[in-house]
Amino acid sequence: MLTANYRSGDDFVVEFLGHRFEFNAEDFEERVTAAAVKLGLVVSNDLDDDERADLVELVADGRIAEPASGLGAYLVRHWERVALVEGESLVYWLRKLVFRGAWLDHRVKEGLLDVSWIEGTSEFGYAEPRGGRTLLELAPVPSWHEYQYRG
């Protein structure tokens, strides 16, 4: 039986939408950083250790207690503006993108999805391996570009 849970380690254990995901620290950090880039919260994944640590704390704990970087200080200082954008929660969407990526990776690993690079969008696309439905279309994500941290 296929388990819906994802596991790369036991540094971070988080439940989301009825699924349990377990990550090693590096995997979680990379997924959190990629999610922040996807949302437009940061320009690129070229962050320093303290910036990544602040993002990890935000996603893991839902808050940043003591900012370690300019990014963390920016998020804490402007929390009233960045926490909700057009009714969408930053923490929810960071978590959702972390888990969406882990879920998709798990499905690829189990042979339930094929992955390919789509030049036009510069993103990965997913399809059922035996034809069936066409390319799996991922739901759009809200944008934090207006509040992007520019260091």
Describe the structure.
- The protein is of the alpha+beta class.
- The chain has one domain (6-111, 143-147).
- The chain is 40% helix and 17% strand.
- It has helices at 25-39, 49-61, 70-77, 79-82, 90-109; strands at residues 6-7, 12-16, 19-23, 84-85, 88-89, 114-118, 123-127.
- The protein has a three-stranded mixed β-sheet with strand order 1-3-2.
- α1 (25-39) crosses α5.
- The longest helix has 20 residues, at 90-109.
- The radius of gyration is 16 Å and the shape is globular.
- The N and C termini lie far apart (47 Å).
- The mean pLDDT is 88.
Would you spell out the secondary-structure blueprint of this structure?
Layout: E1 6-7, E2 12-16, E3 19-23, H1 25-39, H2 49-61, H3 70-77, H4 79-82, E4 84-85, E5 88-89, H5 90-109, E6 114-118, E7 123-127
Parallel strand pairs: 1-3
Antiparallel strand pairs: 2-3, 4-5, 6-7
Helix pairs in contact: 1-2, 1-5
Task: Give a summary of the structure in a few sentences.
The chain is an alpha+beta fold and 151 residues long. Helix content is 40%, strand content 17%.
